[in-house]
Specification:
Helix content: 25-40%
Structural class: alpha+beta
Number of helices: 6
Order of helices and strands: EEEEHEHHEEHHEHE
Radius of gyration: 16 Å
Distance between the termini: 19 Å
């Protein structure tokens, strides 16, 4: 059971949806936060933070969650920058991986990050070192992805299991799942 004593049966939320929090880089009650460039902070909802803390509490001492992405407003200075970079990324991805064109929407879409603070990306920290499952980002070849997951299968499985036990839904796309994109459905 999570440290908070909450039960997340069937994905239902037993805590109320809260206000949006802004988290700076660093440690927040045991959860590490490292915003993905070019962001300087991460915004998530209060109950999502609590669920992440609960998921962290289920993990062994040498394995930690690292929050890398949360709410990103569509209509902001960074939002425009992200759209431009995304368009370039899509063109490059299609050129590099023409056989993976069906994945473009799942990989390059906002995936809810532009809607609210209930959509987050997390990474793993194993014995103090960040585990990069996608060293080249979404351009990491699938074979490399498979090897890295196989090498760290137990840690990846434990993190995903703890997130699911706390009510998070993991992304269906294999590449997005390695960025550990997950959604926290409202109650």
């Amino acid at each position: 059971m999570p440290a908070s004593g909450r039960h997340y049966l069937g994905g239902s939320v037993m805590c109320e949806a809260g206000a949006m929090l802004t988290l700076q880089r660093g440690d927040h009650h045991g959860l590490r936060v490292a915003p993905r460039w070019p962001a300087s902070c991460i915004r998530i909802e209060t109950d999502v933070l609590q669920r992440l803390l609960d998921a962290q509490a289920l993990l062994p001492a040498g394995l930690r969650l690292l929050l890398t992405r949360g709410f990103e407003p569509r209509h902001s200075r960074l939002g425009g920058f992200r759209r431009g970079v995304r368009a370039l990324g899509i063109a490059l991805f299609r050129a590099c991986y023409p056989h993976r064109h069906t994945e473009v929407g799942a990989i390059f879409g906002a995936n809810g990050h532009d809607l609210d603070g209930r959509h987050v990306d997390v990474s793993l920290v194993v014995h103090g070192r960040r585990l990069r499952l996608l060293p080249l980002g979404v351009f990491t070849p699938p074979r490399w992805q498979q090897r890295r997951v196989a090498r760290h299968a137990e840690a990846v499985a434990r993190v995903k299991r703890s997130l699911q036990q706390c009510g998070f839904k993991l992304h269906h796309n294999p590449t997005e799942a390695l960025q550990i994109h997950c959604d926290c459905p409202p109650g």
